[in-house]
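User: Good morning. I'm curious how zinc ion would be positioned relative to this chain. Could you predict the structure with it bound?
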Amino acid sequence: MTVPVFYSSSYSIAGGFATVGKSSVVARLLRDEPIDGIDLREPRPATAADVARVHDPDYVARVVSGERGQFTEHGSEFVVSVMASTGGVVSAVEAALSTRGCAGSLSSGLHHARHDRDSGYCTFNGLVIGARRAIDLGARRVLILDFDAHCGGGTASLIERLRLDGITGIEQVDVSVSTFDHYPSSAWAVCWIADGRNYLGTIDEALDLVLDPFSIDLVIYNAGMDAHESAGGASGITESVIRERERMVFSWARWHDLPVAWVLAGGYPSATFTIDDVARLHRITAEESARAYG
Ligand SMILES: [Zn+2]
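Assistant: Good morning! Here's the predicted structure, ligand included:
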């Protein structure tokens, strides 16, 4: 089996913030040194209708017209980028479900975005848009695993909102190392705060406590690298810890025979940690997904 990984050069905005700039660097790493089993593919862009399955239609229209959303200083280039990168998540979801295997997108999950507004550099919540697409395609239970350094409060609020509309099949397990965008845990969205010393133990416990994993139809994995000690995270979370985390996620999912769609999330360069260093961390997600599913 191959792991299709969706990427479009439209994802990136030259000179944009790392969240929208790094995908081209990760794609270059994957092209320069291909990974066996990883196959880069062009996604179809999301439509306003795809996004409005989750977000307020007026907000969606204002983003599409260039009036709202973060990075609007980049004008129409930003609109093309946000629709391409959201489309990448949806394409990965569709591919994972249709093959009952694994797929990825080099776009980010954007877990802080709310129903009718952007937040924390996130305009549209690709994780929930992808989950909603899976439900529309017949999935009954979708688990969002969010291991970005920050909590996914935007995702939790959107899951809650969909529940009020009778869509109850989406749940979240969130392990963070920061309280940013924290939310109270519920039966459908659990937020753990770990630190650098108990990080893998917390990941292990969080996966272990997922009820009846065999009944999950799709896992959407928000593979943040900002937990890494040099990419914005906690001391003690090194590259080998990140690799072990990815191994744990994909072997847990493979063991339960679950389709997985993974996406990039946080991970930030600094004076001593370059964008290539961040991209090399994201490459680990591709490597470990191919090892388990390729
Ligand atoms: Zn983050």
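The two ends are 5 Å apart (CA to CA). The longest helix spans residues 76-99.
Let me know if you'd like a different ligand tried.
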